[in-house]
Amino acid sequence: MKIPILNISQFKESASLNDVYINSFSNHIQLNKSLINKPHSHNFYLCVLFSEGTGTHEIDFNSYDINPGKVFFLKPGQTHFWKFETSPEGYIFFHSQEFYELKFLEHKLQTFPFFYSNQNPPVLELTHAKQKELYLNFQEAYHEYQQTNLLRELKIVNAINNIYIELTRAYTVDTNLEKLNSPHYANILEKLETLINSHFYNEKLPKFYADKLHITTKHLNRVVKETIDKTTSQLISERIILEAKRLIVHSKGNLANIAYTLQFSDYAYFSKFFKSKTGMTPLDFRKKYF
């Protein structure tokens, strides 16, 4: 079974506007029950602010509490699933990369810290005052989305940009901004993560990625260490483990086939590798998840 990948056109309810969707969260859940009632991924960027409700939000097998004031961010390709204990409310929007970046040619989505690296948490908890402020910004974007006024698309993308700016300020309130704004290292890390996503099935050693980036393995490890306090090998292993978990949970194939798909020499080696990183065997993980 493949993880369903949802696209924006499946959610449309307002007057046609390419590559963007905005809704109140309760209405979104009600309208799209059949689309979001099981784990899925998207081909777009997503942001949601909760003003009411409790539960859990699973993102790439990490669970986060849902409560008022929480904001979640998802990038294309991430798998997620909602589970609510009390009725949720708030606002949700998502958009394609082109919708934003064609309007802001000099500014990329990856420069926002919550979209910059998979290592940065996909969640933010706002103070009560900041929640009230951001709620009004989300509300304004939603009201504009419902209208058909002149320059509607431009106003919406500007509203989303303002939301991202305010969220970035809240997200980085305790961050060393000089380190955050190191463009050279950030650029290398972004390229590394893109390369790992493309090649981790076949290439599991840091030297391959260093060669692709035209730098030494030592310098690549320095970049990764100084930006996210990990090693290149850790990043590669984490991506392999994430894919292994996705295949273990969402495919009906036997575990030996998953080891073969991930290009391990045999199941025993794959199982040993998986257990060394997660503390359990692939079979134990499948049983625990369900």
From TrEMBL:
The keyword Iron-sulfur belongs to this UniProt entry's keyword annotation: no
UniProt keyword tRNA-binding, yes or no: no
InterPro entries: AraC-bd (IPR003313), Homeodomain-like_sf (IPR009057), HTH-like (IPR037923), HTH_AraC (IPR018060), RmlC-like_jellyroll (IPR014710)
Domain HTH araC/xylS-type: 190-288
Entry superkingdom: Bacteria
Coiled-coil blocks: none
SMART domains documented for this protein: HTH_ARAC
Molecular function in Gene Ontology: DNA-binding transcription factor activity; sequence-specific DNA binding
UniProt KW keywords: DNA-binding, Transcription, Transcription regulation
Protein's UniProt name: AraC-type DNA-binding protein
Phylogenetic classification of the source organism: Bacteria, Pseudomonadati, Bacteroidota, Flavobacteriia, Flavobacteriales
